[in-house]
Amino acid sequence: MTPRVPRGSVLRGWTLLAAASMLAVVPACSVPRAAEPTTDPTATGSTSTGTGAMDCGDASLLRAPGEALAAFPDNPDVDWTARPSGRVLAELVIVSLTPAPDEVGYPEFQFVYRCDTEGPSRIATYALDGEAFVLLATTDALAGEELPDALP
């Protein structure tokens, strides 16, 4: 037994409204989107690294949080936020790192990377002490670079 819906009922009105709504929504969903631009990663003017087509600055940003965990092993629960630094030091890449929670001893760090064919190598760590980033440590990869005691 099929229930009958009397003419002019509220249910019939809702059915028509739903059908009309679908007519407006379905074409909007099926409109083709503009194609996303594609680029040849090897066509950029960035420094080539050992990480494929990724430029050294990007590779440094990706590596920095993991290196911070290794550099500060007493704080394994700290989350490190890496971002490009606004500072420039010759041809070196500088990455700013902020620990959360702030229990490492300094509120912010800057890792300095040298880029070569093998990719970025961290050569120094600076820490925010007061209002200046002071040299905290260097690595074995330093190999002759002259670094200032504080970042400009």
Question: Which terms would index this structure?
Answer:
alpha+beta; five-stranded antiparallel sheet; 2 helices; globular
Head-to-tail CA distance between termini: 85 Å
Order of helices and strands: HHEEEEE
Mean pLDDT: 77
Number of strands: 5
The spatial strand order of the largest sheet comes to 1-2-3-4-5
**What class would the helix/strand composition place it in?**
alpha+beta
Helix amount:
10-25%
Quick summary:
By secondary structure, the protein is an alpha+beta fold. Helices cover 24% and strands 26% of the residues.
Describe the structure.
This protein is an alpha+beta fold and 152 residues long. The protein is 24% helix and 26% strand. It is built from 2 helices and 5 strands. It has helices at residues 10-29, 56-71; strands spanning 79-84, 93-100, 109-116, 119-129, 132-138. Strands 1-2-3-4-5 form a 5-stranded antiparallel β-sheet, with helices on one face. The longest helix has 20 residues, at 10-29. Mean pLDDT is 77; it is low at 14-20 and 23-51.
Please give the structural blueprint.
Blueprint: H1 10-29, H2 56-71, E1 79-84, E2 93-100, E3 109-116, E4 119-129, E5 132-138
Antiparallel strand pairs: 1-2, 2-3, 3-4, 4-5
